[in-house]
Every structure is written in C-alpha cells, then in structure tokens.
Write a structure and sequence with these properties.
With about 600 residues, the protein is an alpha+beta fold. About 15% of the residues lie in helices and about 25% in strands. The longest helix has 19 residues.
Length: about 600
C-alpha cells in the first residue's frame, strides 16, 4: 500500500512539474495510437469548435461513435478568419468518411461510407483518346483504382520534375514518332540523336550527325514558360531536360516524372479520384450549354439550378448546398497495415503483376480491402470559386520534420522531427535524405521498374513542411508567424478529435491544412510568404500544403496547390483549376433539360 502511495505522489509531482516548468514533447511509438498522440496537447487553442456546433454536425444533433455527419453548408460559408476554412474542411472530411450505418438517410443502402455511395462518382483514367468518364458508384460493388504512378501535373497539365535546387519544372514530353526540334540561333533544327559524352553531358546532333551549337528548347505554350522544359531521350535511354534558354536542368536520382509509391510492408499505394453529384451535374449542364461554366458554383441560386437539372434527369441530390466537390484518395492493401480496424476501408479491384527484380508487368486484377491513407478535399464555397483545397492523412503515414507552434502559455516551441514510431511509408524516420523515388512507370505502359540501384523497394517518406508552412516563415497574412499558423491547425485537430467519442474511425486522421486565395480571386500560382509580402492571387492559409502520399516527391518551399491548379495564368475556369474537368465527358444518358430560372 505504501509503494502504491509513493508511485501516486511521484506521478502527481511529475504532472505538476510539466504544468509549471514545461516538458519536452513526447515522441510516441504511434502503433495503434489515435491522432491525438502525435499532436501537442499544450498547443494554444486558437482554433476550436464549440460543443453545440460539433453536435449539430451529426444527424439528430447528438455526437455518436461513427455517427453520420452532415456536409458543411458551402453556400452559406462565411469567412471571418482562417479557422472557418479549417472547420469547413473537417466537417467535409467527417461527412465523406461517415459510415452509412451511422444514420445517413438518402445515401443508399449497401455502401460502407459516403465516398462509396451513389453521391460520389469515380473519375476514370484517360482512355486512348484522353477522355475520362464518370463511373457511378453502385452500393455493394467494389471500386476500381488507377495504376499507381505519382505524376504531379503542372498548370499546363504536363508532368513535373524537381531540379537539384528544389525548383519545379513542367515537362514537355518527347512524342514518339515525331522528330523533336531545337532552336539554334534563329533557325529550327531537326534532331537526329542525343548522346551523352564522357562527362555525362548531352550532345544534340542534327540529321547530318553534326553537333548542334547552343541549342535551345522550343516551348510552344501560352503563359509563363520560364518553368517549362523540353524532354529529350538519349541514345542511352536517359532523359535530358532543356529549357528555352538552352540550359540543361539537372535532377536528382529518383526525380522521374512518373513515380510509384510503395509502403514499407510491400503494398503499392493506389489512387482513386472522385467527384460528387453536384460537380457531375454542373459539368454536364455546363458542357451542354444549360448553365454558365465560367466558374464553379458558389451561390444558392446556382446550387438550386444544378439540383433541378439533376432532378429532371431522375437524380435527387440530397446535399445541394455541399456545392462542387472533387477528392483524390490514396490507399494501401488493408492486410499490410498492423491495425486495419483504425482505417476507413473499402473493397476495390487492384492490378496484379508478374514480378521480377527488374520489372513488374500487369497480368490481371484482384479484389482486396483497401485502407485509406490520405485524401485531398477540394470544394467550392460561398465567395470562393477558386475552391478550398484541404488535405488529410492517417496518423501512421509518415514522420513530420521539425516545426514550430505556440503553447498555452504563449511560448513558441520547436517540436523536434519525429525520429521514432511505426510508419506505413517509412522504415527509417531519421533518414537524412527522405522522399527519393525508388520506382517509376515507363511512358505508355503500366509496368513498374526500379530507379537507379534502389530496386523495387519502398522509399522513406517524410512530411517536409508539417501543417503547410516553412520554419520561421508565415504562410498567410492573418498569422504573424509559422508557429501561429501551425497552432491553428493543431488546435482545430485537438478540438475535433477530442470531441469524437469511443473508437470513432475518424479519430485516426488529421487535417494537415487548407489553402485558398484572398477574396476568392483567381490564383496566380504563387504561395504567400511573409518574406516576400502578398500579391493578388497568392495562395494563403497553409500555403505550402502537401500530402505525403500524393505530393511525396514534390515538397518544396515554393510549391502550393495552385502552382499546378491555376492554368498557367490566373484563372477561375473549372478546366484550369481541375485537372480532370477538361477531359471528363458528360454523364451517360444526360438529358439537356432546360430549367426555369
């Protein structure tokens, strides 16, 4: 009895010491841990959600374990501060991942969650004509994933590479069967071959076999082409990237344009892009000329028109005020994670492969259960046709680099890089050189091959800019520091996760951040930086936003969501903001039925 009393005294003393003196953040072994175990619990509560508001997210106004959460009312969205965007993001994520069994009337029977329900459509991969199609969700039928390459497309919808300095460039690919050309002086010259000399430098030769002196790439695109390069394939099968000034842009090993990501336990990371019913009927009506397609819907009148058109086509949309939603999701095979009960899961068909050490070749498909790793939640709201861009991750994905936050005493704390833990996408969290691709998908194939000497192995993934900001640089003008911005995101996570009850599946996910533009203006492709000041169209909020499962190899301090989703020049056109909008065809059997205004 005395021994137990002494232990209790020591525990109380330790708690008081932390309260009044301060303790270093704990480095938890995150196996089977909820997201709160990774979040600093002493973060200043600068962004919270009131209990009665949180209760009203749920059908019936009562918080319940895995209960059904209603979508945010995007039509009535009002921006008072950054926190409003983070609340919107969390409610949308909680809605999409709500189990239908939790009370989701109007979403069909047989689906596990809203993402699998008929409210969402899978966006197909492009066919041979580069067309995409809406694939309806039928409850009880497995979804289909895309093949697993990570191809980060730029504003001209071209793949991107990162140079050795961390800068991103769009790549104009070499087209098979078409002789590439260069500019030599004022003359266009047809290239016969590109060879690497003894020093590994490219030598461009014309049709007579003579070297082309001072060659420059020909970049025939509108808008800013300074961050674009032309790709040339050498006789040795290597890619060479040349810009319009004649400079060769050098990349690190593993910075190919078509990467694949594999988990520590050997599962490919698979991807599914989806859009909601409002998006699908908006696109179909706009492309058929029934409504204006100049920007995504943001008003009650626009929402009503879209839902009336849907009803005329036999579809009752249960959530018109959610407005247009596009999501990109990432998954691994649930059998490869140690605690699948802590993940949102779906049934899906994934490709199978004939595997050797040098190549994986698709040979069919199999039905598996997939576990959700990450999700981009993108949606239009009142006053924001550029859309709000948010991203969430499972808490066991990958370790964070060091970051700053403000504690409840007002002190700025540097949270150290996470070096321990059990991570899905990293076997070496202390790797000094993380985020280097090991696997790529050769062009015009679905094969997988190793990069360099890595073999078909998993890379070590890390979150370079936790909570979407760089150390000591504020990512938005509303916050005075990176620490203040990070604290808001940490605080809303603590507030929301602390109010879910029981073993609610959503307690295992975290909001990484969200970004938008001031006043909803057309994005300019740049991220706000307190070092540079603000220009019209800068991405603000958590402007250096990335997801470790989707921007794994493209995390830089000059990259924002709008770097790739701005059309090359500031634009609010849906086709410039969304990479799938242009190629998507109208809904099958869509009837262009005029609706009275």
């Amino acid at each position: 009895m005395k021994k137990k009393s002494m232990i209790l005294v020591l525990l109380i003393a330790a708690g008081l010491t932390c309260m009044y003196v301060g303790c270093d953040p704990v480095k938890p072994d995150n196996k089977n841990a909820a997201s709160t175990d990774r979040l600093p619990q002493d973060a200043k509560p600068t962004c919270t959600i009131a209990k009665d508001t949180f209760q009203n997210w749920f059908v019936g106004g009562q918080i319940s374990e895995n209960g059904f959460v209603q979508p945010a009312n995007s039509v009535d969205f009002i921006h008072n501060n950054n926190c409003d965007f983070y609340k919107w993001s969390w409610q949308m994520f909680a809605w999409m991942t709500s189990p239908i069994s939790g009370g989701g009337g109007g979403y069909g029977k047989g689906a596990n969650n809203v993402l699998e329900s008929p409210v969402f459509y899978t966006v197909s991969a492009p066919d041979s004509n580069l067309q995409r199609f809406f694939i309806p969700h039928t409850p009880g039928e497995p979804l289909r994933v895309t093949v697993a390459p990570i191809t980060q497309n730029g504003p001209h919808k071209l793949p991107m590479i990162r140079d050795k300095k961390g800068n991103l460039f769009e790549v104009v690919p070499e087209v098979k069967g078409i002789r590439p050309m260069l500019l030599a002086g004022n003359n266009k010259v047809i290239i016969n071959s590109v060879e690497l000399d003894g020093a590994g430098k490219p030598v461009f030769k014309d049709q007579s076999g003579k070297p082309i002196l001072n060659p420059k790439a020909i970049i025939n695109f509108k808008g800013n082409t300074k961050k674009m390069v032309q790709e040339f394939i050498t006789t040795q099968g290597k890619s060479v990237f040349l810009n319009g000034n004649g400079d060769v842009v050098e990349t690190e090993v593993g910075q190919a344009t078509h990467n694949a990501l594999i988990s520590k336990n050997g599962s490919l990371v698979y991807y599914i892009t989806m859009v909601n019913d409002v998006y699908a009927y908006f696109l179909s009506a706009a492309k058929d000329g029934l409504i204006s397609g100049s920007q995504f819907p943001t008003t009650a009148q626009e929402a009503a028109s879209i839902c009336a058109i849907a009803k005329a086509n036999g579809t009752n949309i249960p959530d018109c005020n959610a407005l247009a939603i596009e999501v990109k999701t990432s998954w691994v095979e649930a059998s490869t994670v140690p605690d699948p009960q802590n993940y949102v899961t779906i049934d899906a068909f994934v490709p199978t492969y004939n595997k050797t050490d040098s190549i994986w070749i698709p040979n069919g498909e199999k039905k598996v259960k997939l576990a959700l790793l990450g999700i981009h939640v993108v949606g239009s709201t009142g006053g924001h046709p550029e859309m709000v861009w948010a991203t969430f991750e499972h808490d066991q994905n990958a370790p964070n680099a060091a970051y700053q936050y403000i504690n409840n005493k007002g002190d700025t704390i540097v949270h150290p890089a996470e070096t321990g833990g059990n991570w899905t996408l990293s076997s070496k969290p202390a790797d000094p050189n993380p985020n280097v691709a090991h696997i790529k998908v050769p062009k015009n194939t679905n094969n997988l091959v190793p990069i360099g000497n890595f073999g078909m192995t998993a890379s070590n993934t890390s979150m370079v800019f936790p909570w979407g900001s760089e150390m000591n640089v504020s990512p938005n003008p509303e916050d005075g520091s990176s620490a203040a911005s990070n604290t808001e995101v940490i605080a809303i996570n603590n507030s929301v996760l602390g109010q879910f009850i029981g073993k609610d599946i959503r307690k295992n996910y975290m909001l990484v951040g969200a970004t938008w533009t001031s006043g909803g203006v057309a994005p300019n492709g740049l991220s706000y930086s307190s070092d540079q000041g603000q220009t019209t169209g800068d991405a603000i909020g958590t402007s250096l936003l990335a997801n470790t499962t989707m921007e794994t190899y493209f995390q830089t301090n000059s990259t924002t969501c709008f770097t790739c989703h701005s059309g090359g020049t500031p634009s609010l056109l849906p086709a410039d903001l969304s990479h799938v909008y242009d190629s998507l065809q109208v809904l099958k059997n869509f009837k262009a039925v005029p609706v009275k205004k």
